[in-house]
Amino acid sequence: MRKRILATAAIAAAALLMTGCAGGSGGTDSGASGGDSASDALEVTTLNMGVVPVADAALAYIALDEGFFSDEGLEVKVEAMQNAAAIVPGVLNGQIQIGQGAMPPVVSAVAQGLPLVIVANAANVPQDADADPMAILVKPGSDIASPKDLDGKIVAVNALQAAIELIVSQAIENDGGDPSTVTYVAMPFPDMAAAVERGDVDAAGVIEPFRATGLAAGLVSISNPMVEAFDGGVSHAAYFSSQEFVAKAPNTVAAYERAIQRAAEAATADPSLVRAVLVKYGNLPAEVAEKNNLPAYDGAQVSGDSVRAVIAAMENQGFIDAGAVKAEDLLVG
To answer: pTM of the entire structure?
Structure first.
C-alpha cells in the first residue's frame, strides 16, 4: 500500500501565489446579462469563487481584469485557497458558488457521493512536453534520474490523493517503476524546495510557478510528468459548483462559462495576459513569470473524454474504486 504522511508545516499567507481576495467590478443588482431575452436573466449576479493558487486559476483572473465577468452582469470575488479539498466544503454549504481546482479531487468528491458538477474548464495538459507546467524536482547530483528511480523514496506533494500525487504516480508507473513503494508527504508548494535541499524529502512534485522558482533555486527536473501521465489536451483542472446552485441558477452558470470562454481565447492568443496575472496577483517578479511553463487554455468546455481519462488514471492508481463514478456524473447536462 502506498504510504502517505501529512506534513505539519505552517502555511504562511505571504507564501501563497495569489493571496487574499480580488473583487470584481461592474456587478449589478438588475440581473442584466449577455443573454438576449428575459428568459436569460441572471438568477444570481454576485459570485464568490475559491481558487487554487497556481497558474491553472489564470482564466478567472483574466475574466475579472478584462471585464468579461462584468460584461455578463456578474460581480465575482476571488479568494485563493490551498487546494481543491479546502474549497469543496464552501461550495457545498453555499459560501462559495464556484470552485476551481485540479480534476482528481473533484472526481473523488463525486465518487464519494458529494453533489458537485463541473461548470467550465480551467486548464489542459499541453501538447508539447517541453511546455509541461509540472516537474519532479530533485537536488543536483541526486541519483534519481527518472521517475522509476523514485521507488522507495519520499516525495512531497501539496495534498494527498490529489492531482500532483496522481500524476507523479502515473509517471512512475509509465517509466517502469512501482508507485506503491513511494511515501508521499503533504506540504505547501512554497516549502518544497527547501525540504528537498535539506534532504527531508527525496523529490517534490510541483506545478508552476513553483517549477520555475525551484529550478531558479538550483533544483533539477527529472520529468515532464503531466505530459508523461496524460495525452495533450486532457483537462487537468476545472471550475466546479454544487448541483443545487447549477439547478437554481442555470443562466448565471451559462454567463460564467461564456466569460471563461472569452478568457480562454484571450489567454491562448496572448499568453502575456497569464504572466501578468502571475505578477499582479502572485507577486512574482516579471523575469520569473516569463520562465513559467503555462498550461493550455483550450476553451471553457470539459469533454467527456477528458473526464474519463482522469477517472481511468485514478482507478489505476487506487484513488477510487472501479466504477465508482462516470464522466456523465460530473458534467452539466
So the answer is: 0.83
Task: Kindly indicate whether the domain formed by 131-229 is annotated with CATH number 3.40.190.10.
Answer: yes
Least confident interval from 142-146, 220-224, 329-333: 329-333
Strand ranges (E), 46-130: 46-51, 75-80, 98-102, 116-124
Is residue 322 predicted with pLDDT exceeding 80?
Answer: yes
For the chain, what is the radius of gyration of the CA atoms? 19
- Cα–Cα distance for residue pair 133/207, rounded to 1 Å: 6
Q: Can you tell me the distance from the alpha carbon of 122 to that of 139, in angstroms, rounded to the nearest whole number? A: 31
Indicate if 131-229 has the same CATH topology as 10-127+232-329.
yes
Measured CA to CA, the distance from residue 226 to residue 56 in angstroms comes to: 13
Give the integer Cα–Cα distance in Å for 123 and 97: 19
Domain ranges of the chain: 10-127+232-329, 131-229
pLDDT in tens, 14-73: 233 333 344 543 333 334 444 544 457 999 999 999 997 778 899 999 999 999 999 999
Cα angle, residue 48 at apex, residues 302 and 69 outer, rounded to 5°: 65
For residue 123, give the amino acid letter: A
- CA dist., res. 149 & res. 177, Å (int): 7
Question: What average pLDDT does the segment 318-332 reach?
Answer: 93
Q: Which residues pair with 207 in a beta bridge?
A: 134
Q: Which residue has the cell 517541453?
A: 130
| CB atoms inside a 10 Å sphere around CB 66 | 16
What pLDDT is attached to residue 208?
Answer: 86
Q: Considering the domain delimited by 10-127+232-329, tell me its CATH architecture.
A: 3-Layer(aba) Sandwich (3.40)
Tens digit of each residue's pLDDT (9 = 90 or more) over 261-273: 999 999 999 999 9
> In this structure, are residues 24 and 79 in contact, taking their beta carbons and an 8 Å threshold?
no
CA distance 67 to 263: 10
Pairing of strands 75-80, 220-221: unpaired
